[in-house]
Amino acid sequence: MESATIWQEEQERARKISPTVRQRTPTAIAGRATRITHWPLAGLAICALILALPACIAPLPAMPDYPAHLASFYLLAGGVKLPLLAHFYRVQWALVPNLAAEATVPFLAPVFGLSGATGLFLTVAVLLWVLGAGAVQWALYRRVGIGPLFASVFAYNANFMWGFINYYFAMGLALCAFAAWIATGKSRNAALLAAFAAVVLIIYFCHVFAAASLLLLIGCYEITVAGRPVSVSRIGWRLVPVAAAFVPAALAYFFLKPAGERGLMEFNLLDTWEDRLSAAVQFCFDRPAWWLLGLLVALFAIALWRKKLAVHPDMRLLLVVLAVACALVPEWAMGGWGIDLRLPAVLGALAFASAEFHFARRTAAALACGMVAIVAFCSASLAGNWLYYDHRFAEFRSASRALPAGSKIVTVLDGDAMGLASDQPYWHMAEYAIIDRQAFTPLLFTTEGQHVVRLQPAVERIAARSADQGSPPDITELDDLAAGNVNDDPDIRKVFPYLIHFQCHFDTALVIHLGGHRSLVPDMLEFEHAGSFFSLYRIRRDEHCGNK
Question: For a surface tag, which of 33, 122, 139, 232 has the fewest beta carbons within 10 Å of its beta carbon?
């Protein structure tokens, strides 16, 4: 009897399109939907295309992780079979939940080229974020207003700028899956549940955190629509299909995920609060768009206060839980860094996707035009920034072609010369030499249990083994590293143990100094090439090497 009552309540909820149209006739509702749907949809499509442009026009985007991903795709596409690279790397396919790009880009590369296939992957990922927010609003209201136009700017977030491309793609896919779950609420059957289970499993293998986030979204939504009065049986009834949809992914996680880097959770809440806030909207790496975030928050708050905005009642609990999660998730978990950057953009996108604005038509049109202009500005800023770095990366790639094939390259930062400039875009720049010169670098993504490109035994001891070892040393640390001095600098023991006596294992040092006054280099570095922002040095072996 209770199940029948719940079903009747759900049927009644399905007839309520939104609180603002409850008293209108079906004809009036359909007429209003026809009048307001077309131009916001057109605006959303324009925003999606504009935001996707930088990934199409910048061959070498300034995402810190991009060169390492590109080198991995090169190896997966067949580069690992080359004799020199086969000495350093191997491919070990495994069911790691981090395969979105690895499972697609190498197979598209023969058609589009390596950079073209990666650019296509990034383009689709941006479109998923923008159109996914629109799909959520349509699923909630059966129409699209101006809310998703505001949500579209959250497609440019810290995850995209860092190059966390597997998570970014998977989360865009998760937004679309969440919209489909909402839209099929009154017609979900065994066949649809099986389809959802397959989609969730795909998202899981794309990236585990995106699958976990989708579980959070659907779980909170189902708890809300369980209705009132709240009871355990009502909530349990609603969560049964959720559990069924996530069973295959859960089994894959507990029984198929290969063992690897686990790590402890580190929260660092006080040290990361600014990163969490700024992660929601960025249109250049390491340049938080505070003015845009503040503008969006102010618009949302003022419109809510003036009753010009209503948040869909079925989304309110979800938004509150997401806000709490944004504040409390750890910075490090399961051996991965940047977990605290993952959810703020999801919160922003869903907040506006859940919002129905009640402005006059002219005001809404003016706001929509303003958002399209802002989106165009963000896209143009990112494209200009990426093209600037693209020229720099191309300069390095040209210079690296003079290096002997099979060189072992270590990247070094001249922190004093770089000053306050961001050094992260250069962390993985040496990985381009894997493609161009069959080189070895110690910072390629090869962590067991997280990646399918692995190290050969001959080089395992001289490569980073986890995310917390994933940054280059400063030039001031080279003397201690060369001497094996682990007492004066704790980073040498914790972050750079694989670089102790580096001069005995590496052939070339890539020193990034940008335009500042360059620091003195250690005696074991012999100058070879000066670039506009970097220098290449040959590394000489010394008395510490012996027979190493």
Answer: 232
Amino acid 366 reads: A
Residue with tokens 């400063």, as numbered in its chain: 474
Phi/psi at 415 (nearest 5 deg)? Answer: -60, -40
Predicted confidence at residue 26, as pLDDT, reads: 35
- Distance (Å) of CA 114 to CA 59, 99, 279, 389: 10, 17, 29, 19
Q: Which helix (H) or strand (E) element contains residue 165?
A: helix 165-183
**Cα–Cα–Cα angle for 249, 250, 256, nearest 5°?**
80
Q: In the beta sheet, which residues pair with residue 336?
A: 333
**188, 180 in Cβ contact below 8 A?**
no
Q: Who contacts 212 (Cβ-Cβ below 8 Å, separation ≥6)?
A: none
How far apart CA 347 and CA 154 sit, in angstroms, is: 9
Domain ranges of the chain: 2-57+94-259+266-384, 404-539
Name residue 137's amino acid.
Q
Q: What is the DSSP string of 48-106?
A: HHHHHHHHHH-SS---TTHHHHHHHHHHHTTGGGSHHHHHHEEE-----S--TTTTTHH
Contacts 24+ apart (CB under 8 A), 66-69: 66/118, 66/163, 66/165, 66/428, 67/393, 67/428, 67/429, 67/430, 67/431, 67/432, 68/428, 68/431, 68/443, 68/444, 68/445, 69/101, 69/118, 69/163, 69/165, 69/445
CB neighbours of residue 203 within 10 Å: 27
294 in Cβ contact with 357 (< 8 Å): no
Q: 375 exposed, middle or buried (CB, 10 Å; 0-12, 13-18, 19+)? A: buried
Looking at the chain, the number of H-run helices and the number of E-run strands are: 21, 10
DSSP string, 168-201: HHHHHHHHHHHHHHHHTTTT--HHHHHHHHHHHH
Length of the chain: 548
How confident is the prediction for the chain on average, in pLDDT?
91
pTM of the predicted model over 0.85:
yes
Yes or no: say if 425 and 389 are a contact pair by the CB < 8 Å rule: yes
Question: Per-residue pLDDT tens for 296-343?
Answer: 999 999 999 999 999 999 999 999 999 999 999 999 988 789 999 999
Backbone angles phi and psi of 439, in degrees to 5: -85, 170
Question: In which residue are the tokens 């090169």 written?
Answer: 74
User: In this predicted structure, what is the pLDDT of residue 334?
Assistant: 80
Please give the Cα distance from 135 to 131 (Å, whole number). 6
- Cα–Cα distance for residue pair 216/350, rounded to 1 Å: 13
Phi-psi group of 89: left, alpha or beta (phi > 0 → left; psi -120 to 50 → alpha; rest → beta): beta
